[in-house]
Structures are given as C-alpha cells and as structure tokens.
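Q: Protein A?
A:
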Amino acid sequence: MITLGIETSCDETGVALFCSARGLIADALHSQMDLHSAYGGVVPEIASRDHIRMLLPLIQQVMSDADIERPDAIAYTAGPGLVGALMVGGGMANGLGLAWGCPVVPVHHMEGHLLAPMLEDEAPRFPFLALLVSGGHTMLIAVRGLGDYETLGTTLDDAAGEAFDKTAKLLGLGYPGGPLLAELAEDGDDTAYSFPRPMLNRPNFDFSFSGLKTAVMLEVKRIESSGALDLRRADIAASFQRAAVDTLVGKAVKAAKLHGMNRIVVAGGVGANRLLRKEMVKHFTGDVFYPRFEFCTDNGAMIAIAGAMRLADAEDAAEIRAVARWSLDTLDVPSLA
C-alpha cells in the first residue's frame, strides 16, 4: 500500500509518499518563511494562497520521483491548524480521492508528529512518553499505542517554540526566531544570567514559559538602557535557551519515571534544538528517539505514515474535515489497527 500524505496546517506545504513495504519513497517540502518574515509571523490568508499555488506541483513532483501513477490511499492534515490552510489540503485530498477512487484519511497534525520517529530505521516501540514541542504546542503525552494517548501536561500560556521566537524578537533577531536564537546561543555563556525554570519543581507536568519570557524582557530592557545589549545578546540567548531546555528535560524525565516509561520521543519543531537533544540523552537513562531534523518541523512524511497506520479511519471523499482546535485525547484506537 502506498499512501500520499498532504500537510498544509500552517506555513509549510508538505507532500510525501509512504509505502507499507518500503517505507518513505518520496517527499517534498515548500516553506513560506520568506513570505511571512516581513510581517514577523504567519499571515493566514497568505498561507492559504501559497498552499494553493504549491500543492499540486509538489504532488506531481513526488509522484514523478516515485514513478507511480496514483497512490492506494491519501492522508491529509485535518487539524489542528489554520482553517483556510487546512481546507486547501483537505480539498485537494478529497478531490484526488474522488478522481482516483481511493480512500481518504483525515489525520490529526499532532499524531503525525508523534509518529514521525517511526520513519527512522531505529523506530520506537509502544509504549513511550512523548514530548511534543513546537511553536503552538508543549505537551507531555503517555503513548500506549496508536490512538491510545493520555495528555499528562501541557503549557498554561506560551508554547516553548513561541517563547523562543518572542525572546529572539526581544534580541532583535529575524523570523522565525527559534533557530536564530539557538545559533546565537552557541557563542554565549549559558550561566551568565540566572533565568527562572518555570514550574520545574511543581508536582504536575504542566509548563509555563511566560515568566521566563518576562524575566528575559526585563533583563534586555535593563541592559539596553546602558547601551551594552550588543555585547550581551549571545549570553542572554544562551541563558534563556538553557533555562527552557532544563525545564523541558526535567519535566519529561520526571514524567517518564513516574509512569514507568523507558522510552522518550521528542518531536515537533523545537525537537531539532541540539541542546535539547544533548541534555535529554544525558539525563534520561532509557532510550531517546527523534525524527531526523527535516521531519521535526511540519512535513508530509509524518502525515503519510500516520495515514497509512489509520486506513481504518478512511472517510467519504465528498466530505472535507478542517478543525482549528482538536484534542489528541479525543482520538480513538483504529478498529483494524
């Protein structure tokens, strides 16, 4: 079975083909970063229009790369995400499903991130603890099987990726700020500033990054008033990154131990952060799994494999599903999984 995966939840157009026997056989990704950088964030209308422009050429590209005429199934991101952008992917998937006479599977975007490490040669086995960290989400999830998810903790305010981007903006860096901040931090001293580790010692597994962001903002204003910000940017970036990573790793390791998990999966855009990867391996005695760097951010490959694993959930190709908010806890275990 070959499944075509389509990802259009935000500002990346991702398309991939996953074969149940051969694994990932083709993928393509288009980023809209340059389009949105002038606005300092994603503009939904621009995102939707660019998905319309790029989606069909990318589908044609992966079909050509894989040398196939049509897939056996189509999976698309149905949510959560920007509704207009989701409608583009859902409309294309359902139109092609009608034309090709193949099943269409709506996929939960975050389940795609959860399953992205399954694309690797050393894939995690169920059960495992998942740390999902991105611009919109920071979650700890007990994953006992496909569709069997329990959210143990989530962010009470800013997501980790959002905190990275906002801190980067405070430091005068470009968009998206997270990767630029991490790059700047490599030249800094992460002990220069003692920023808080929010909620690290609380008994629950929820996160909060607004206090950390505020502490950085106050420090930036203080240094800026003395005219020394240019000399201290790298140290601030490194100290912020260290505080955020310490919080993420500390919470994840504690949750894994409490719930008897000897495997941790780190996924989502912030999962590409090198310090996070290094510290998780350093502090967790079990096995740690990540998607390859290019599959940490939104991509079609993770939707293709999730769709392949959820073919039992295929729907009538005449109905497009697009959900802005959609809890992972509402997903069911596929009846034929």
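Q: Protein B?
A:
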Amino acid sequence: MSLPGIRLESVRRKSGGRNHLTPRVPRSGPVTTLCGQTLAADTYSAVETDADCANCVRRSRDASRISSAFFEQEEGSELLRLSLEQARFRKPAPRPALDSAKPAKSVNRPIVEPPPATPDRIGDLVTSGFKAAGNGVWRSPAGVIVRMAGKGRERFDELVFEGAIVATRLEDGMRLRAGDVEVTASGGEVQVRIRR
C-alpha cells in the first residue's frame, strides 16, 4: 500500500500470521506496524506480498497516521524529503482569470480643464495683480477687496479696505487710493488697478 509518493513496506512475523505495513523495515531492532503492534527484533521479516491486516490497510489511507508512523521510527527526514519532492512537481492552483465576457468597469473621472486665462481687463478693472475671490469679487495682494457689478460684472461697484484711504480731486474727476489699489474716475470713465 502507498499514498502518492510514499511507499510503505510489508512485514510479517517469522512464526506466521498477517502481513502488516510499516514505513521502513529496519535491518535490526524492533518495528512498529500501522496497526500499532511492535514486533521485537529477530521476530519478523520483510515480505514482498501485499498487506492483509485490515487495520494496517485502513490506516494506510490516513496521511496523519502515516506521518506519525514515520516519525515514531525516526524516518521523519525521509517523509520531509518526499514531501518536498512532491511539492516541486505540484503545479500551483490556477488563478481565476478575468471574465472576458464582462466588460471592464469604466471609471468616471472628471475632465480637468485648466482655468480660463484671465483677460488683461474686465470693464473698469485692470486685472493684473488681482486674484479672483468669487463672482465679480477681486482681491489685491495687500487685501483690498474690489466688487464689480452689472452685466458681465464689468462695472466698478465697491471697494473694501480696513486701513487709510486717500482721496484726491482731479480736474475732471477723483482718484482714490486704498492700500495697493488705485481707483481713478475722470471724464465718465472709471479705472481700478494695482498701484505701481
């Protein structure tokens, strides 16, 4: 009897009886059979015929019993060698392949568009130096807030600044300075820009 890669040997008492299974028949000393019998030295012999002990035959199908028997007879290294040899030839389990019938899930990624280039001028506002801070709201580097109104947010509406504001009268209008922003109104035209 044998399991894949493991060959058990048959042994029988010299006085006769059943053929038993054992991992190895030693050259000298006692032998333990799979059915649990211990045969004393010089009371057994190796035989080439199949085992006919029902317990040995049944236990020869139990890998844990065979493993225990190998280690009891100090044949554990032989069992390890056989196990490694089997592992070398064993094919790994195939990985589940992707089901080609199922289409791959599409990933919805938003299309990132670069922000539109800011024009040099939007109505009354010269945009150079300003940062957009909302719909029609612009902020200067010094923190002055300029609000634009009207259709297309092109008309100067309000200036907010917590600091000194200087207003200067011009011949045909007025100039207002708040932080780094200058608002000039003359001849019906208004210009808001960062002071140079």
